[in-house]
Design brief:
With 479 residues, the chain is an alpha+beta fold. Among the domains are: 119 residues, Uridine Diphospho-n-acetylenolpyruvylglucosamine Reductase, domain 3, CATH 3.30.465; 200 residues, Alpha-Beta Plaits (2-Layer Sandwich). It has 18 helices and 19 strands. Strands 12, 13, 14, 15, 16, 17, 18 and 19 form an eight-stranded antiparallel β-sheet that branches. A hairpin with a 4-residue loop joins strand 18 and strand 19. Keywords: FAD, Flavoprotein, Oxidoreductase.
Length: 479
């Protein structure tokens, strides 16, 4: 039998696409084979959509027997091309979106167990129905999947209080490269019985196995939430306000989202229907978000007191407090619209980096200067999660120079990544490595770390079939 016929025998003809059937929609194929940013387009022998863990395991066993690479894809919202196959056309693209069931919600243990193809928003809503909070929150939460969130160790806007995806996961179910099912769906906060395999698979971008289900932490729903948009004269002031907020709100501080004035300017230009409640007279702005489990009256009093003290001490220059849930959502919508506005004003060079919080201000000053020296007139599109040191340090081309500027992406990466390294940072904070940064990773990661990563890859995926050409290449594999 052929590979395609064998795949059909596992999942059914309806769930195997290979572009050769008369009724196959080429647009449907393209939706899987091109990444979200439109930067990578690959080919595949087939696109297969299994319905459960056993079908995933059977597909993996089949591919191992045929020695066919497997690329796993969830919602296809990645930023680094990690879920897009290469142009070789030899891989099977395994899409997890049919693994979309909520398996269990335990309100006593505060856990939820879900299949990997569940949309993030679906998990949030399932938790909310039980008066619980699943705090992972991203701009793509209406389309990204839990499997993808875990595979890239996603961050989001509430890392400051709850941590990233790794911190929210208690147990995983994983299909290994041999097609075995590793059943680690434990709901324990403490389990000291050997190597932490869960954390090995989280962030591995499908290069060591396929996550098919996860047990995740839940939290009580907050009684009250407060949001404010505030303005600063400098990054130093923003950092001072972050520390001031941590002291004033303690563990109630959930988000501190930094935005440059230019980010809000392009949102205002591209989406004039969105009301910008502050003037753009200051270089930096931030969304501050606090949640309280006591009372709404107490939460608002604390929130106003801290902001008023900061204003009186000249830490913040202007502020607007949301007076309703709708106003809070509108403020967050400004932040979430920045990537959309970026796409409208023109393609740029995106950087998802992190540096120690205390060194953010000099990093931005020095790197901005270096980029302007290299390519005068570039636009600095800087926003991100200040509370955990994660900046989306994006670079836009001068007007009318987009094509020539994008051709110099590697030069821009080197300037930014060299500066990140000088400031003891990381070239990837929450988007992963994928194929975008794979070749540069050995230049910015310790040689011994790279060696250990290669040993792990060879040990767990000896055939080199799991998402080849992503994250880490082993010298023993011909990619």
């Amino acid at each position: 039998m052929s590979l395609i016929k064998d795949l059909i025998s596992i999942v059914g003809e309806e769930y195997v696409l290979n572009g050769k059937g008369k009724d196959t929609d080429q647009d449907e194929l393209a939706a899987y084979l091109t990444d979200w940013r439109g930067r990578y387009t690959g080919r595949a022998q087939a696109i297969v959509r299994p319905a459960n863990t056993q079908e995933v395991a059977d597909v993996v066993k089949l591919c191992a027997r045929y020695e066919v690479p497997i690329v796993t894809q969830g919602g296809n919202t990645g930023m680094c091309g990690g879920a897009t196959p290469s142009n070789k056309g030899d891989a099977v693209l395994l899409v997890t979106t049919r693994l979309n069931h909520i398996l269990n919600v335990d309100t006593v243990n505060d856990t939820i167990t879900v299949q990997a193809g569940c949309i993030l928003q679906q998990v949030q809503e399932a938790a909310a129905k039980q008066d619980r909070l699943f705090p992972l929150s991203l701009g793509a939460e209406g389309s990204c999947t839990i499997g993808g969130n875990l595979a890239t160790n996603a961050g989001g806007t509430q890392v400051l209080r709850y941590g990233n995806a790794r911190d929210l996961a208690l147990g995983l179910e994983v299909v290994t490269p041999e097609g075995e099912v590793l059943n680690g769906l434990r709901s324990l906060r403490k389990d000291n019985t050997g190597y932490d395999l869960r954390n090995l698979y989280i962030g591995s971008e499908g290069t060591l196995g396929i996550i098919t289900a996860a047990t995740l932490k839940l939290y009580p729903q907050p009684v009250a939430e407060c949001t404010a948009l505030v303005a600063f004269e400098s990054l130093d002031d923003a950092l001072y306000m972050l520390n001031y907020s941590r002291k004033g709100f303690a563990s109630k501080l959930e988000g501190f989202e930094l935005m440059s004035a230019y980010c809000l300017q392009i949102v205002n230009e591209c989406f004039p229907e969105q009301h910008l409640p502050l003037s753009l007279d200051h270089p930096w702005y931030a969304l501050i978000h606090m949640a309280d489990s006591d009372s709404e009256e107490q939460a608002r009093a604390t929130f106003q007191r801290v902001l008023e003290e900061a204003f009186n001490n000249d830490i913040i220059q202007d502020a607007v407090l949301a007076e309703s849930i709708q106003q809070s959502q509108d403020l967050w919508h400004l932040r979430e619209s920045i990537p959309l506005a970026e796409a409208i004003v023109g393609k740029g060079i995106k950087n998802d980096i992190s540096v120690p919080i205390s060194r953010i201000a000099p990093f931005v000053d020095d790197t901005n200067t270096a980029l302007q020296t290299w390519y005068p007139g570039v636009r600095h599109i800087i926003f991100g999660h200040l509370g955990d040191g994660n900046l989306h340090y994006n670079i836009g081309a001068p007007e009318g120079e987009e094509e020539g500027f994008l051709a110099k992406q590697e030069e821009a990466f080197k300037i930014v990544f060299d500066s990140v390294t000088d400031y003891d940072g990381s070239i990837s904070a929450e988007h992963g490595i994928g194929q975008l940064k794979k070749d540069m990773l050995p230049d910015y990661k310790d040689e011994v770390e790279i060696s250990v990563m290669r040993k792990i890859k060879r040990a767990l995926d000896p055939q080199g079939l799991m998402n080849p050409g992503k994250v880490i290449d082993s010298v023993d594999f011909d990619y």
